[in-house]
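Interim report to the steering committee. The following record documents the input for MFS transporter (443 residues).
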Amino acid sequence: MVDSAITAPLIVLPEMLDHFDTDQAAWLNASAMLAGVMWAPLLGKCADVYGKRRVLLWTLAISGAGALLCAVAPSIWMFVPGRLLQGAAVAAMFLAVAIVRDVCAPRLAMVVVGIVTSGSAVLNIGSRFALEGLAERFGFQILFAGSAVIAATMAICVRAVVPESRVTTPGRIDVGGALLLGGGLAGVLSYVSLGSEFGWFAPVPLVLLACGAAALLRWLLVSRRKPEPLIDLRDLGGPLALTLLVVVLATGSYQSMLQLFPLVADVGAEQGLGYGLAGQGSVALLLAAPGVGVMLGGPLAGALAARVGPAATLAGAVLLGVAGTLGMFAGATAYPAAIFFALVLGFTVGALGTSGFNMAASLAPPERQGLVSSLVMVMVATGSVVLNFVGAAVLKSTSVAIGGDTVNSATGVYSYVTIACCAFAAAAVLAVVLSRRMSRVKE
C-alpha cells in the first residue's frame, strides 16, 4: 500500500509533468510524503487511544479516497490534494510494525518487523514492469486507480484477520498541532519549490516562508505548554533523538535518489549533457532494483538486530548507504552501475527502516508503541520531502535550454548527488555515536 502511494508514481513522473504542463516534480512526487508528516503522528496517537486495527482501517480508507481523486484529477490543483490524502498510506507501515510488536515476543518481533517493512518488495519488483506497460497503454491514471483497489482489498483483509490492540491508553488527540506542523512544513517547502522559479526574494515565496516559519514556531511554543501535545519533544531522550536524526537524513537521501532515477533515465547520452541513461535499459528495472535490495536488507537487518542489537545494525546500514550514494556518480552515465548501486541503496533502506523501527520500539513502553513508531515515519516523511524539494530546486536553478527545451544540466544532477552524499555522511556520524552510546549502556 505504501509503495503504491509513494514509490510507484515515480515510474510515470515524466508523464505526469507533461500531462499537467509543470516542472514541479517535487509537488507531484513528494506531496504524499509531505502529508505523511501530518498524518503519521496524528494517526499514531489515535492508534494508542482507539486501537491500532481501527486506525489502520481509517488509514486505508483515506488513502484510497485520495488515490481515486488523483486518478480523475483534471488539473494539478486537484491532483496535489489527492496526493495529500493518499499520503495517509505512510501510516500503514508504522501501524503494521506496532501491531507486530503487540503480537510477537521482542526478539522474534525484530525479525518479523524486517519482513513486514520489506516483504512487499517481492510484489513490487514484478509490478514495476506491469505498471510501466499499463501506464503506456492507459495513462498514468491507472496507477492511482490500482492504488485505490489495493486500499480496498487490504481494508477487507485487515478487518477479517488482524486482531484489535490489547493495550490502549486514554488521551486527547492534538489535531491543531498536526495542522500547524503540516502547514508549517508546507509553507517552508513551498518557498524552496517556488523560490528557484520566481526568485528567492520575490514577495510570494517570502510570504510562504514567513507563514510556514510562523506556523512551525507556533507549533513548537504551543506543544511545550500542552499536557498532551502531538509530539512531546520533552520526552524524546538522547538515544531516541539520535535515532530520529539518523532516519531523517538517511531516508531523505535515499528518497531523493529515487526521484532522480527517472529524470536521469529520461535523458540520452547522445544529447551531450554529461549524463543520461535513456536507451541503455528499462526505467522499470532501474526502479525495481531497489526493491530487490529492500527485500534482502529488511529481514537480514531484523535477524542481525536480534543478535547484535538494532543500534549497531543501523550504523552498518547507513555506512553502506554512503557507499551506494557515492556510486551514483558513475551510475548517472552507466546503466549497469546505476542498477548495481540502486540495488545497494535498496538494501540500505531495507536495513535502515527495519533498524530504525526496532531501535525506536526498543526505547518505548507498550502503551506508546503507536506514537513512537509514528515518529520514525515522521522522520522518513520529513527527510524525504526536504531533500526531494531541495534536490528539485537545485535541478531547476541549474537547468539549461537546448533546442528550445529546458533540461537538467550535469551540474545540477551531480550537485543533487553530492547533497545526498553529504546527508548520508552526516547520518553515518550520528549512527556511529548512537551505536557507541548504546554499547556503553549495555556494559
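The mean pLDDT is 81. The committee is asked to note this result when reviewing the revised timeline.
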